[in-house]
Amino acid sequence: MVRIQNKHLEDTRMKKHSGLYSAVSILLVIVLVAGISLSLLSSGRTRPENPISTQPDRLQAESLQGSGSTGGQSSGKDNTENTDTAQDPSEPQKPDEPQKPDEPQKPDEPQKPDDTQKPDDTKPDPSGPTDPTDNPGKGDQGGSKSDDNKGGSEDSGDHGDGTGGDDGDHGGSGGDHGSGGEEDDTPRIYTTLKTQQLTKAELPDSKLTFVAYPLGKGDLHIRVRLKNETNSGNGLLLTSQNNQDYEAQLDFNADNLFVLSLYDGETFLGLVQYRVGYYANLADDTHPTVGDYPPSIVTNLDGASLDMSSQTFPLTVIARANAELGAGVIYSNQIRVTLDGKTVEKSYGDSQPTYELYFDPPQSGDEETHIVRVLAWDGNGNSTMKVYTVTYHQISEGDPAGSVDVVLDATTIGLGILDTGTLDIVEGETAASVLLRFLQERGYEPDYQGSTTMNFYLRRISRGDIAYRANVPEHLWELILRDGITTNDNYDRDSIGEFDYTQGSGWMYSINGTLYEGTGMSGYKVRNGITIYVRFTLSYGKDIGGYDSTGGGYGSLSSYCGLWINGSYQALGHDFVETDRLEPTETEDGYIHYCCSKCHEEKTDILPATGGGTEPIEPAPTEPVPTELTPTEPSDPVVTDSTEPSPTDPSDPTPTEPTFE
């Protein structure tokens, strides 16, 4: 009975405990559900996913080479900088200028200006850029190649208007505007900075002021860095009292790179870059050359008729540093072309850029005058400007437009000028069309691909015994072998064409004999008065002066220091560099050995022996002139001690034989 009662008490206790456990469990479930509910509610208020992370082009870095409207000072060198600043800041970074401890660090909660969303009272003139990606001008560098150049790898600098910016020849793509009704909340950077070229006259104190701040939704802030020769590495972190107005000290005669990075809290969103060149005053109409060593400019307007009936003209420019500075190539990022005061963007090319000129129709009558200016500068404060006055005569497409001359040249294989002729042309006709008419009228059979208006390429011309007497000049053949160009036996007496004699052979054309266009003959519209030279090359244009238009990179020689054109050989200057020296001794000659840096031609200068051990050369005899000597009186001996010396008899001096001079 006691055991049953105890068991009953025990069962009662267990029931009480079980009820307590149930209550605790229910309470825990309620707490858990409440927590999940709060979490779900709070997640609805978290920041949306950063739209930039799904649109990587929005703030893509601009290449250091910048736009053609500004250009660096590399004289052909490729000055491209790594955009390592575009890494997410969560990745390990190099320390930010440890030698400058007073440089401010990124605050935990950076403050935006009060008018970030509606900066009505601080926003610059609305005619200015409305987005950091606004950048008037596209082009390419250098330098360094470039560009690099030296020039080079360049960015267009044109960041577009909502569709994405154009890319330069070698640079990264530009950002896009990021504006529009549906993208107003997109995080982006507003700035008055732009890639440009500034001069001392425009900025006497070298201090550049600009505005930069973030736009869009989120905990946005920006970091602005200046990278130049003074502030290398990660550059100098610029600060602003109101988080939008900045001032920067520019390096003179150098490029200054501004890197603007956008953050949402601690999250890195992207960056934009602007390159500002700051140089000495450039040449202008009043001062066509500036500096002690101004560069040279050659264009296809030199020596050409400036009366034009074609509404477009492909202006080709070759600029080089002064000969005293090495005559290096000046790339397109250091060339500026304007038509009637407006900048003309480069169409293509880098070391030999081409600019498409478009002449507006006359306001009255059928002709109008236009001013073309070509400016080139180097990295040493020297610049040159050429000015051309062009008269455009408006005529309709297909109307008679004058005449052109055609020259067929095979000097490189010893045949000289094969043929010449003059043909009438019509407005809008291409060089390919003129060439085909010329060949067919004179009994040649052309083999070509493409058409006269698209992708034309002349492979070969044939006519009976056209190459019967072909003979490659010996000096040219030596240079081809030295250049490492592959040779062959693929030629015949009845035709001349690509891959004859070498892998670098073929037909090339030149306008007026000096400039080789970077575009095909189907893309070049002829004009009255020009001469079209069609020349056969054995070495990618090096033997006829057209190597630059091929883009280079063939063989081991940069030049042959001579041209085989117009029926003869035309020597160019060597660039001899000392490679070895032996100083002379007294008995043996020395020497200085030189090698041309371009064509690898060698020469040796003898340094004559110093002459210390050689036979003296006797002078030519002259008439003897006798001279008389007067006898001298004998002198008494000098007493040197107390002992009396034995006196000696004085004797008369013996007169000497006269000497002859």
TrEMBL record:
Please give the start and end residues of each transmembrane region. 20-41
* Ranges of biased composition (kind: Pro residues): 647-661
Q: Which domain of life is it from?
A: Bacteria
- Report whether ATP-binding shows up as a keyword of the record: no
The UniProt keywords, alphabetically, are:
Membrane, Plasmid, Transmembrane, Transmembrane helix
Q: Where is the composition biased (Basic and acidic residues)?
A: 91-124, 145-161
**Region annotated Disordered, chain positions:** 42-187, 607-661
This protein's name: DUF4430 domain-containing protein
Instruction: Give the source species.
Output: Vescimonas fastidiosa
